[in-house]
Amino acid sequence: MAARRAAIGPGQQVSEAHALAGKVAELTAGTVCCYVPFGSEPGAITLLDVLREAGARVLLPIVPPAPGPLDWAEYTGTSSLVTGRFKGVLEPDGPRLGPRALATVDRILLPALAVDHSGVRLGRGAGYYDRSLPLAAATTDLVAVIRDTELVPSLPAESHDVRMNAALTPGEGLIRLPLGN
Length: 181
Known about the structure:
Distance between the termini: 26 Å
Mean pLDDT: 92
Radius of gyration: 15 Å
Shape: globular
Helix content: 10-25%
CATH superfamily: NagB/RpiA/CoA transferase-like
Low-confidence stretches: none
CATH architecture: 3-Layer(aba) Sandwich
Oligomer: single chain
Number of helices: 4
Protein backbone atom coordinates (compact mmCIF):
# COMPACT_ATOMS: atom_id res chain seq x y z
CA MET A 1 0.00 0.00 0.00
CA ALA A 2 2.77 2.43 0.92
CA ALA A 3 4.67 1.72 -2.30
CA ARG A 4 1.54 2.27 -4.37
CA ARG A 5 0.99 5.59 -2.61
CA ALA A 6 4.57 6.70 -3.19
CA ALA A 7 4.05 6.24 -6.94
CA ILE A 8 1.14 8.71 -7.09
CA GLY A 9 1.99 11.81 -9.08
CA PRO A 10 1.34 15.43 -8.11
CA GLY A 11 -1.45 15.80 -10.67
CA GLN A 12 -3.43 12.94 -9.16
CA GLN A 13 -2.83 14.25 -5.64
CA VAL A 14 -4.17 17.70 -6.56
CA SER A 15 -7.18 16.23 -8.36
CA GLU A 16 -8.03 13.96 -5.43
CA ALA A 17 -7.53 16.76 -2.88
CA HIS A 18 -9.96 18.94 -4.81
CA ALA A 19 -12.53 16.11 -4.97
CA LEU A 20 -12.17 15.37 -1.23
CA ALA A 21 -12.66 19.05 -0.37
CA GLY A 22 -15.92 18.98 -2.33
CA LYS A 23 -17.11 15.83 -0.56
CA VAL A 24 -16.17 16.95 2.96
CA ALA A 25 -18.47 19.98 2.83
CA GLU A 26 -21.37 17.53 3.24
CA LEU A 27 -19.85 16.06 6.43
CA THR A 28 -19.78 19.10 8.66
CA ALA A 29 -20.60 18.75 12.30
CA GLY A 30 -20.14 20.90 15.37
CA THR A 31 -16.56 19.79 16.07
CA VAL A 32 -14.46 17.76 13.63
CA CYS A 33 -11.02 16.33 14.25
CA CYS A 34 -8.97 16.18 11.11
CA TYR A 35 -5.30 16.08 10.08
CA VAL A 36 -2.91 18.02 7.85
CA PRO A 37 -1.95 15.64 5.05
CA PHE A 38 1.75 15.14 4.40
CA GLY A 39 3.65 13.13 1.86
CA SER A 40 1.27 11.09 -0.26
CA GLU A 41 -1.68 11.18 2.16
CA PRO A 42 -4.92 12.14 0.44
CA GLY A 43 -6.28 15.62 0.97
CA ALA A 44 -4.91 19.12 1.41
CA ILE A 45 -5.17 22.06 3.80
CA THR A 46 -8.10 23.24 1.66
CA LEU A 47 -10.15 20.45 3.23
CA LEU A 48 -9.67 22.08 6.66
CA ASP A 49 -10.73 25.45 5.32
CA VAL A 50 -13.86 23.97 3.72
CA LEU A 51 -14.84 22.47 7.09
CA ARG A 52 -14.33 25.81 8.85
CA GLU A 53 -16.24 27.74 6.18
CA ALA A 54 -19.14 25.31 6.65
CA GLY A 55 -19.24 26.21 10.35
CA ALA A 56 -17.32 23.34 11.94
CA ARG A 57 -14.80 23.79 14.71
CA VAL A 58 -11.72 21.93 13.46
CA LEU A 59 -9.22 20.26 15.80
CA LEU A 60 -5.86 18.96 14.62
CA PRO A 61 -3.51 16.47 16.26
CA ILE A 62 -0.27 17.34 18.02
CA VAL A 63 2.15 14.42 18.25
CA PRO A 64 3.26 13.96 21.88
CA PRO A 65 6.96 13.73 22.80
CA ALA A 66 6.54 10.15 24.05
CA PRO A 67 4.30 7.41 22.59
CA GLY A 68 0.76 7.95 23.78
CA PRO A 69 -2.55 9.47 22.71
CA LEU A 70 -2.47 12.51 20.46
CA ASP A 71 -2.95 15.99 21.91
CA TRP A 72 -5.32 18.37 20.06
CA ALA A 73 -5.56 22.09 19.29
CA GLU A 74 -7.94 24.18 17.21
CA TYR A 75 -7.13 25.00 13.61
CA THR A 76 -7.83 28.69 13.01
CA GLY A 77 -6.29 29.02 9.54
CA THR A 78 -3.04 28.35 7.73
CA SER A 79 -1.22 31.02 9.73
CA SER A 80 -1.80 28.93 12.88
CA LEU A 81 0.23 25.98 11.53
CA VAL A 82 3.82 25.31 12.58
CA THR A 83 6.21 22.42 11.98
CA GLY A 84 5.72 19.74 14.63
CA ARG A 85 8.04 17.10 16.07
CA PHE A 86 8.35 15.31 12.74
CA LYS A 87 9.76 17.06 9.70
CA GLY A 88 7.01 17.95 7.25
CA VAL A 89 4.17 17.47 9.74
CA LEU A 90 2.23 20.67 10.41
CA GLU A 91 0.43 21.20 13.72
CA PRO A 92 -1.65 24.05 15.16
CA ASP A 93 0.18 26.38 17.54
CA GLY A 94 -2.88 27.27 19.65
CA PRO A 95 -3.73 26.20 23.19
CA ARG A 96 -3.53 22.46 23.82
CA LEU A 97 -6.82 20.76 24.57
CA GLY A 98 -5.41 17.39 25.67
CA PRO A 99 -6.18 13.87 24.48
CA ARG A 100 -9.58 13.86 26.18
CA ALA A 101 -10.80 16.50 23.72
CA LEU A 102 -11.81 13.53 21.55
CA ALA A 103 -14.65 12.78 23.96
CA THR A 104 -16.41 15.97 22.84
CA VAL A 105 -16.14 15.76 19.03
CA ASP A 106 -18.81 14.79 16.54
CA ARG A 107 -16.61 13.36 13.79
CA ILE A 108 -12.99 12.31 13.35
CA LEU A 109 -11.48 12.31 9.86
CA LEU A 110 -8.25 10.37 10.06
CA PRO A 111 -5.58 9.19 7.67
CA ALA A 112 -5.25 5.54 6.68
CA LEU A 113 -3.27 3.49 4.20
CA ALA A 114 -6.33 1.30 3.67
CA VAL A 115 -9.67 0.33 5.22
CA ASP A 116 -11.50 -2.92 4.72
CA HIS A 117 -15.19 -3.60 4.22
CA SER A 118 -15.66 -4.33 7.94
CA GLY A 119 -14.04 -1.04 9.02
CA VAL A 120 -10.55 -2.28 9.95
CA ARG A 121 -8.09 0.57 9.39
CA LEU A 122 -4.46 0.15 8.36
CA GLY A 123 -2.42 3.07 9.66
CA ARG A 124 1.24 3.94 9.32
CA GLY A 125 2.27 1.81 12.30
CA ALA A 126 3.16 4.32 15.03
CA GLY A 127 -0.05 3.65 16.99
CA TYR A 128 -0.97 7.26 17.84
CA TYR A 129 -4.53 6.88 16.59
CA ASP A 130 -4.80 3.40 18.15
CA ARG A 131 -4.05 5.02 21.53
CA SER A 132 -6.31 8.01 20.86
CA LEU A 133 -9.53 6.61 19.37
CA PRO A 134 -10.65 4.76 22.54
CA LEU A 135 -11.01 8.24 24.13
CA ALA A 136 -13.71 9.23 21.63
CA ALA A 137 -17.37 8.94 22.55
CA ALA A 138 -19.21 5.86 21.29
CA THR A 139 -21.35 8.14 19.10
CA THR A 140 -18.39 9.81 17.35
CA ASP A 141 -18.36 9.23 13.60
CA LEU A 142 -14.97 7.66 12.69
CA VAL A 143 -14.13 8.32 9.03
CA ALA A 144 -10.92 7.11 7.37
CA VAL A 145 -9.79 9.29 4.46
CA ILE A 146 -8.42 7.08 1.69
CA ARG A 147 -8.13 6.80 -2.07
CA ASP A 148 -10.81 4.84 -3.92
CA THR A 149 -8.45 1.89 -4.48
CA GLU A 150 -7.60 1.71 -0.75
CA LEU A 151 -11.00 0.34 0.28
CA VAL A 152 -10.22 -3.36 0.26
CA PRO A 153 -12.19 -6.52 1.08
CA SER A 154 -10.13 -7.61 4.09
CA LEU A 155 -7.23 -6.52 6.32
CA PRO A 156 -5.74 -8.24 9.37
CA ALA A 157 -7.20 -6.93 12.62
CA GLU A 158 -5.66 -6.74 16.07
CA SER A 159 -7.46 -6.55 19.41
CA HIS A 160 -6.66 -2.84 19.87
CA ASP A 161 -8.04 -1.80 16.47
CA VAL A 162 -10.98 0.58 16.60
CA ARG A 163 -13.21 0.03 13.59
CA MET A 164 -14.16 2.88 11.29
CA ASN A 165 -17.82 3.39 10.58
CA ALA A 166 -17.11 5.14 7.27
CA ALA A 167 -14.50 5.86 4.63
CA LEU A 168 -14.22 9.05 2.60
CA THR A 169 -12.81 8.69 -0.90
CA PRO A 170 -12.34 11.21 -3.73
CA GLY A 171 -14.50 9.31 -6.21
CA GLU A 172 -17.19 7.71 -4.08
CA GLY A 173 -17.51 10.23 -1.27
CA LEU A 174 -18.73 8.88 2.08
CA ILE A 175 -19.04 5.10 2.23
CA ARG A 176 -20.70 3.73 5.36
CA LEU A 177 -19.10 0.66 6.90
CA PRO A 178 -19.40 -2.25 7.34
CA LEU A 179 -20.23 -3.10 3.72
CA GLY A 180 -22.28 -6.11 2.77
CA ASN A 181 -24.41 -6.31 5.90
